[in-house]
Amino acid sequence: MFSKSKKGKQKFIACTDKNKKYEFANPKELYIKQGKENIPIEIVSDKKGFVYIIWKKKKYQVEIIEKNQNQYEVLVNGVSYPITVESPFSYKRRKFLAKSKEQSKVERIQAPMPGKIVEFLVEEDQEVKEGEPLLILEAMKMQNEIVSNIQGKINKINFNLEDNVMKDDVLIEVEK
Amino acid sequence: MKKINSILIANRGEIAIRISETARKMGIKTFGIKTSKEPGAYYLQFMDEIIDFTEQISEIPEFLDIDRIIYAVKEHNIDSVHPGYGYLAENPYFAQKCKDEKIIFIGPSPDSIYKLGNKTIAKQLASSHKVPLLEGSNGNIRNPKHAKQLANKIGYPVILKAASGGGGRGMRIVEKEEDIEKMFRMAQNEAEKAFADPSVFMEKYVRNPRHIEFQILADHHGNIIHLGERECSIQRKHQKLIEESPSIALSAELRQKMGESAINIAKASNYRNAGTVEFLLDETGNYYFMEMNTRIQVEHPVTEMVTGFDLVEWQIKIAQDEKLDIKQKDVKLKGWAIECRINAEDVQSGFTPNLGTIEKLSYSKGKNCRFDTGITEGSNVTPNFDSMLAKLICYGENREKAIASTLSALNKLQIQGIKTTIPFCKAVLNHPKFKSGDISTSFIAKDMDQLYHQEKDEEMIAAFWAALNYNVELETEDKTYVDYEKGKSMTPWLMNKRLKSL
To answer: Where does CATH 2.40.50.100 sit in chain A?
Structure first.
């Protein structure tokens, strides 16, 4: 079903968020190498339009739910995998940059879900411990405690009481 | 009382559809409420008539607007109201209003709802009828200092609960003295917000208990039976996620004893209609009365599957004064049933609500498998409503077979467009401790290392799919290809087309 590329082998490195890497030489040839063996992959779709990969007689439902340049969020059987795809060159560059990059001093506390801020438990310039609750976010009728994941000082509070926030909005910045 | 010819279903989602199905079977006309928050909702397709509440006339949410609902019932000359669960299901004032207006409320009397809904009164009822109880505050806590005194007397850990609460909201476990004052204030705050009643009481907290509840049916002629138990120990933050019937923890003897206690509670409160008595069961077989829910429960289908009774049908029959012609000895629990709640939640980010549109939905349905859904393709999941989208209920001759049939149905259940609790349910059902029946309400927190199920090579498949998509995309860019299909989701045909155009 797939025509083969006329170009030469192109290697891709797909990294997970835990920095585990998978290498694929020319993925369009539709196989995954295991040991010395190339095991073929089949891509199928059912009448509803769900897409599946069949590999080693097992069927996996796949779906890309978010994409930003070379960063993908892939759902396989409903489980989410954040994957960054690099060429061997860009992979080396990324590793190099990561090493030389200075550790960020400011921790941005993001909203884990959309909701309304119903209570602030801290003020700006206040010292907080790791795990200390910062504010209460109400979503789907539940009150959720948002805690600091580092020890530090409250640098900035970006919202007001009763504000509605979106998922991933930076609520509070804590300085190490 | 006269025969019911029409019902206003004062609810939405899967339960509105569930009620309409029984009503249709009984030849009863159904009325549904259309709201501005989801005017194209799936449940509306199941109603004989739709009452339009889309015009915003007050700040009160549509399904909580007692005056508007009563007015609609009168205006359309409807015989009865079924409240479903949540919303006005356990609001004694609403039940009283219906009574005053000569509308049949499909549920217990306002007095029973009031007494059992107030946990403090409910506990007094239980203790005066020799039903075992946990040590607690015996009433509401006055202030943080009072909370501290009581907790020191009862001994940590303790649990704080909203007196008018339910469904896990307004509950907090306190492990140590430093936290008690803060937690008390938070529980009070949450109770005030959720139930417009800040009253909070305290109990001793039992570690590793099982949540066992008994289904009750009582008519207006003095007949009262129980339909066995449901085990709802798989909970996260007091929200039930997987339920089953019967429970592996109950011997016939213990079932009889707990069933009798459940019936005693119902008798003590003059209970009529369907209800559920909740108990905590400890590791040595001691049980404690928790509360009685005066409504149809989310998890009622597991009882229906093992007893063969239609609980909504009995709710309606009892409401129209029919006699309960089933005797306790006729109630037999046959086989095993498991229910999985399919919620719009991202399990991998701490069960946070996941909003969006249901793009595709596919599931299998059959004699041993029921899918009670409130959504269909094209449904929107918004923050206005609860995150529960649907329930998958599967049956087997025994527990082992029920687990196998549930897993097989979960594998066939696919939802695109939103993250759901399906990978979580698979993880529970595959867990060796769940399989052996060794569960408690702290199962999720204590026994699960990973909250979602992963097949061995899934991560590599994900990596491959991303690499393939990136590869195709890069090469189309190389050829300064105008991407007319940009933003479309990838399908094999689209992929094939792109590959060919290289």
So the answer is: 106-175
CATH number of B207-334: 3.30.470.20
Is B295 a residue of the active site? yes
Of B12, B295, B341, B399, the active-site residue reads B295
- The residue type of A170 is V
Q: Confidence class of residue B481 from pLDDT cuts 50, 70 and 90?
A: very low
Alpha carbons B273 and B105: distance in angstroms, whole number: 10
Is A12 in Cβ contact with B470 (below 8 Å)? yes
- For an interface test with B, which of A24, A76, A165 has the most B Cβ atoms less than 10 Å from its Cβ? A76
DSSP state, B296? Answer: -
- The CATH number for A106-175, chosen from 2.40.30.10, 2.40.50.100, 1.10.287.3510, 3.50.50.60, is 2.40.50.100
Asked if A80 and B419 come within 8 Å (Cβ–Cβ), the reply is yes
Q: Please give the average per-residue pLDDT across B32-46, as a whole number.
A: 97
pTM score, two decimals? 0.82
| Residue B52: count of CB within 10 angstroms of its CB | 11
Cross-chain residue pair A112–B349, CB shorter than 8 Å: yes
- Most A CBs within 10 Å: which of B173, B364, B422, B459, as the mutation test of the A interface? B459
Would you say residue B55 has pLDDT above 70?
Answer: yes
Q: Do B6-106 and B207-334 come out as alike in CATH topology?
A: no
Chain A residues within 8 A of B454 when measuring between CB atoms = 79
**b or e along B304-333 (b: 16 or more beta carbons within 10 Å of the residue's beta carbon)?**
bbbbebbbbebbbbbbbeeebebeeeebeb
